[in-house]
Amino acid sequence: MSEETSSQPRTAWSDDLLWALSVFDTAVLLLDGELRITHANAAAHALAARVDPAHPDPSVLLRQLPAEAWAPACTIGRWRGEVATASGVVLQVAAYCGQRGNEMRRFVVLDDVTARVAREHELTSRHDELERTYRRLASTQEQLLQTEKMASIGQLAAGVAHEINNPIGYVHSNLGTLRDYASALISLVEAYGRELGTEHPASAHLQQMRERLDIDFIVGDLPQLLDESREGIERVTKIVQDLKEFSHVGRDEPVRAVDLHKGLDSTLNIVWNDLKYKVRLEKHYGEIPPVECHPSELNQVFMNLLINAGQSIAERGTITLATGVDNEEVWVSIADSGCGIPDESLARIFDPFYTTKPIGRGTGLGLAICYGIVAKHHGRIEVSSRLGFGSTFRVVLPVQQPRPGQPGA
């Protein structure tokens, strides 16, 4: 309602005030005690036209106020707030209420802050994007540090393995020679006994000495001890070889076709000492072709998944390794019968720094690094889990890496 149709006398507001309001750039509505508009300045008419071009009446501005605005306005004298209109215009509104004698005075001040709100939203959006970019950079830096650490450990392990190889080699050779010498000496002792016979004067003394030294037991046990020692050295040799294969660092080397079964078994050999006391291992290997990859990087993936599987088992459980091929993709599955992963955590397990492990047991980078390595190989990791029953991680890789110029390369 405009001032010309006001039901209140013009004398309710002074002419000087009305003149002053007419030159304001801010929209002002003067109201009577029954919330009827008694005056609207030119800025209010212009603002009403922006809010509702089809019905550019100042009353459209008054209708934007929420009904609950007047209670605090009349209690403490004013109410402030922002209101988004149906037309997209955002209004900053201040409602004032006061008593003059027996007459209730109210007025509303409105300002179009659409542009300011849009800028604030844009700044907030840019800030959020910067925050996300910062977090991505921080996680990438942490992964690079972890990768460098793994590379350093790999070089150290490879050097140690190389140094261990030499003494292991001659110990293994000496045990073989020692077994031959022991067999020869035992044969000679047995021959002496047969040649002397029971009638020889020294035979009784020799028989007593044979019994006292338990020569019969030694003759039977010595070859077995040497065989077990040689098997132990061969076991150490295998571990050293697996360690060299696992820690082989060749970041700039091209991918090569490798047997994933060999890499999986080598990695299992490295971590088995942490698993053997509580894990029963099952293998269900299928026939799979050689896969083009960086084998040391995939060994790191297998190691992380095997360690996680072992840590999810509290006392006794089963880890099942399975492999297979689907069309042009090979898959490796590592399943455990451990505690499982809660549904609310399942979507975040590959996020850097996210971990459900106690403080000191996990950094939240293991699975993130696995995800990055598999993605680098143009593969994927599929996860299924049931709380209290265990989890299955399935690494799916292309048999051949895309060539430059091919889709996905």
From TrEMBL:
PROSITE patterns linked to this entry: HIS_KIN
One Gene Ontology molecular-function label: ATP binding
Pfam families: HATPase_c
Record InterPro entries: HATPase_C_sf, HATPase_dom, His_kinase_dom, HisK_dim/P_dom, HisK_dim/P_sf, Sig_transdc_His_kin-like_C
SMART domains: HATPase_c (SM00387)
Domain Histidine kinase: 159-401
CDD domains, A to Z: HisKA
Keywords, sorted A to Z: ATP-binding, Nucleotide-binding, Phosphoprotein
Phosphoprotein as UniProt keyword: yes
Reaction catalysed by this enzyme: ATP + protein L-histidine = ADP + protein N-phospho-L-histidine
Taxonomic superkingdom: Bacteria
Enzyme Commission (EC) number: 2.7.13.3
PANTHER family linked to this entry: HISTIDINE KINASE, SENSOR HISTIDINE KINASE
Protein name per the record: histidine kinase
Organism: Lysobacter korlensis
